[in-house]
TrEMBL record:
It comes from Aeribacillus composti. Keywords: NAD, Oxidoreductase. Pfam families: Mannitol_dh, Mannitol_dh_C. GO terms for molecular function: mannitol-1-phosphate 5-dehydrogenase activity. This is Mannitol-1-phosphate 5-dehydrogenase. The lineage of its organism: Bacteria, Bacillati, Bacillota, Bacilli, Bacillales. It is an enzyme of class 1 (oxidoreductase). Residues 2-195 form the Mannitol dehydrogenase N-terminal domain.
Length: 382
């Protein structure tokens, strides 16, 4: 079996390709980084190191790669032969790969009319549907029925911490032991693609929100409270008893939302929360507070990791979630001068106040009980 994977970065090598290799696929990387592509061609193997006390290594063999800018025809040829296509390029790069993907799929439709699944493994909701929209924008109306018949774009949720790292071997990649790859069955054409370690579900939304409201919520709050206390790493923040307690409190609140909405087993979700907290405290992974905290305006979105669970908690349970409120207040104090969104956020607060910022970025009315509580906590922290 042949899998074509767009993106030879750490997530691609350390997570997606690792599982595909274990599933028996011959995997071809597609990337524009000529240095990485040449190294993969030369060595034809690399190491995945598990970030725990044992530092176990997995050797990935039978590696190949092509440069999508200088070897365009090879990429298209691989697409015509592939049994699976995956991506890990970042949400903003999906439009850039759509052109060559559309061209390859058009040629494939002429010579190889067998079902093919495309899975965008990006840190976003509905990534594969977004990629599909970009691909369909590149093809004619006449081609669309054929694409619908043979090409299934499967949405998924991926979760694995791959820390910033510099290794002596530029191809080696360190990853945390935990991983989760949940794939929605809805657009499968024919048989489910064989992927060892992936979990196929009928409805992806509960799993996306579980990850967003637990992993992303906890990570964000640890970063903003860590920044407030002038700590450097997430591990340092989580080793601070007060911050760890605040993170746990917020995750109990977001967890109550998930249990109420989706009927999660409460004890099982408590186990999941504790597993996530232990991930943040992994001594083998050092993630910078300012890296995790970046883009605070995006994280203030009405449906994002902080405001989303907070408003749903208030709507479902009729109370103000004080743990989440403290995390949001700490976000509003994030004034890191090297982050454009942080600078813009502070300017908005100066000009319109906390109420104005929450109205502009979170769609919260100025007299909403959450706004009142967040402002009180912000003033207390300030």
């Amino acid at each position: 079996m042949l899998a074509v994977h767009f993106g030879a970065g750490n997530i691609g090598r350390g997570f997606i390709w690792s599982l595909l290799s274990q599933s028996g696929y011959e995997v071809v990387f597609v990337d524009i980084n000529d240095e990485v592509v040449c190294l993969l061609k030369e060595k034809q193997e690399y190491r995945v190191i598990i970030a725990d006390e044992h530092k176990q290594e997995q050797l990935i063999r039978n590696v190949s790669a092509v440069n999508s800018q200088t070897e365009r025809e090879k990429v298209i040829d691989y697409i015509t032969k592939a049994h699976l296509i995956t991506t890990a390029v970042g949400p903003h790069i999906l439009p850039a790969i759509a052109t060559i993907l559309a061209e390859g799929l058009q040629k494939r439709a002429e010579i190889n009319q067998t079902p093919l699944h495309i899975i965008a493994c990006e840190n976003m909701i509905g990534g594969s549907e977004v990629l599909k929209s970009h691909v369909f924008a590149k093809i004619s109306e006449a081609d669309k029925p054929l694409f619908e018949k043979y090409y299934g774009f499967l949405n998924c949720a991926v979760d694995r911490i791959v820390p910033n790292q510099k290794n002596e071997d530029p191809l080696s990649v360190m990853v945390e032991p935990f991983y989760e790859w949940v794939i929605e069955k809805r657009n499968i054409i024919g048989d489910i693609p064989p992927i060892q370690g992936a979990y196929f579900v009928d409805d992806l939304k509960p799993y996306i929100e579980r990850k967003l409201f637990t992993v992303n919520t906890g990570h964000a709050i640890a970063s903003y409270l860590g920044y407030y206390k002038k700590l450097q790493t997430i591990q340092e923040a989580m080793n601070d008893g007060e911050i760890r307690s605040d993170v746990e409190k917020a995750l109990q609140e977001s967890g109550a939302v998930l249990v109420k909405k989706y009927g999660w087993n409460e004890n099982e979700h408590q186990t999941y929360i504790q597993k996530i907290i232990q991930r943040f405290m992994n001594p083998s992974i050092s993630d910078e507070v300012v890296r995790v905290a970046r883009s605070p305006i995006r994280k203030l979105g009405a449906n994002d990791r902080l405001i989303g669970p907070a408003t749903q908690y208030y709507d479902l349970l009729g109370q103000v979630p004080l743990g989440l409120v403290k995390g949001i207040a700490a976000l509003l104090l994030f004034d890191y001068e090297n982050d454009d969104e942080a600078v813009a956020l502070q300017k908005t607060i100066q000009e319109t106040g906390v109420e104005g910022a929450l109205y502009q970025y979170s769609q919260l009315e100025k007299d909403h009980p959450l706004v009142i509580a967040i402002k009180d906590q912000w003033q207390h922290l300030k």
